[in-house]
Write a sequence for this structure.
């Protein structure tokens, strides 16, 4: 749907690079961006797996982003963390959500193992958000 990208623009992002596994997301993003008056936004979408596809990782770049966001289940977030951290600038923040209650410690541990600091866990009902900061 591109919801995280659209929110990033609504909150002031100048550009967004997004990845998704589902090819249907391309058309959905175009439609949703048009409906939300973002059709001219600096938005790049690549279909592929940031976790283990070197081509996607290289296209995303390294030490490029102030913020990386992901909203998906904890097991995927755990696998995604090293690639997300590699994409972050020093001092950048990795923000994750979509984590069911009881799984937040596993995500926080993966962030610590990847070198993130200032780990923060927040909750809303049964859902959790975990974030961390890449060291300088």
């Amino acid at each position: 749907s591109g919801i995280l990208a659209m929110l990033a623009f609504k909150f002031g992002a100048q550009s967004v690079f997004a990845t998704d596994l589902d090819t249907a997301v391309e058309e959905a993003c175009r439609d949703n961006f048009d409906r939300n008056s973002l059709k001219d936004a600096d938005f790049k979408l690549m279909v592929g797996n940031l976790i283990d596809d070197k081509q996607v990782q290289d296209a995303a770049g390294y030490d490029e982003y102030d913020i990386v966001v992901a909203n998906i289940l904890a097991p995927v977030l755990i696998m995604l963390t090293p690639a997300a951290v590699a994409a972050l600038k020093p001092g950048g923040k990795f923000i994750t959500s979509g984590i069911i209650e009881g799984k937040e410690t596993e995500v926080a541990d993966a962030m610590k193992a990847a070198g993130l600091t200032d780990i923060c866990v927040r909750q809303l009902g049964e859902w959790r958000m975990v974030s961390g900061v890449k060291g300088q």
Residues 34 and 114 are 37 Å apart (CA to CA). The longest helix spans residues 74-87. The helical segments are 3-10, 25-35, 54-60, 74-87, 104-113.
